Amino acid sequence: MTVSLSGTEVAKQIASQFPEAIAESSNQAVVVKTEYLLKVAEFLKNSPDFDFNYLNDMTAADYYDYFEVVFQLSSLNLNHKLMLKTRCYERLKPAVPSVCCLWRGAELMEREIYDLMGITFTGHPNLKRIVLWEGFQGHPLRKDYL
């Protein structure tokens, strides 16, 4: 059975490498500041203690005050998992760094989030709509979509 790592414990180890990176942590998840997302994700993937070599899933939620992008990471070698989150407080042009350079599977998931939520992933190799047609107005999973 895959073991869920404590977000609080992982946050302590992340903070030892990147002292300003942690926005919040709980037993279930670690929330990192958006500007540190790529560095923290790379650390979690390449650190022998974590070895998060697989991105299970990626999604986003709209909380009116901010967007939250959620990553479900797993280590196939160490048999553990972690929920990593970041928040974007800009409503007009929300942007988060792309993690495609770390996990190739993120490419389609980021396109889906871009299409349905309107969050731009900077550094994405081919960011365009994947579910809706070009010219569709708006992003239907946003809470302010009419």
Describe how the helices and strands are arranged.
Elements: E1 3-4, H1 7-17, E2 22-25, E3 29-32, H2 37-46, E4 54-62, E5 67-75, E6 80-88, E7 95-97, H3 106-117, E8 120-122
Parallel strand pairs: 1-6, 3-6, 7-8
Antiparallel strand pairs: 2-3, 4-5, 5-6
Structure report:
The structure is a single chain. With 146 residues, this protein is α/β, with parallel strands linked by helices. The protein has a domain at 3-92: NADH:ubiquinone oxidoreductase Nqo5 subunit (Beta Polymerase, domain 2). Helix content is 23%, strand content 29%. The chain has three helices and eight strands; from the N terminus they run βαββαββββαβ. The strands form two sheets. Strands 1, 2, 3, 4, 5 and 6 form a six-stranded mixed sheet that branches. Strands 7-8 form a two-stranded parallel sheet. Helix 3 links the parallel strand 7 and strand 8 (120-122). The N and C termini lie far apart (43 Å). The model has no long low-confidence stretch (mean pLDDT 97).
| Oligomeric assembly | single chain
Q: Which band does the percent of strand residues land in?
A: 25-35%
What percent of the residues sit in helical stretches (DSSP H or I)?
10-25%
Q: Average pLDDT across residues? A: 97
CATH architecture group name of the domain at 3-92: 2-Layer Sandwich
The number of helical segments is: 3
Radius of gyration of CA atoms, rounded to a whole number: 15 Å
N-to-C terminal Cα separation, in Å? 43 Å
Question: What would the CATH topology of the domain at 3-92 be?
Answer: Beta Polymerase, domain 2
Low-confidence stretches: none
- Relevant CATH superfamily of the domain at 3-92: NADH:ubiquinone oxidoreductase Nqo5 subunit
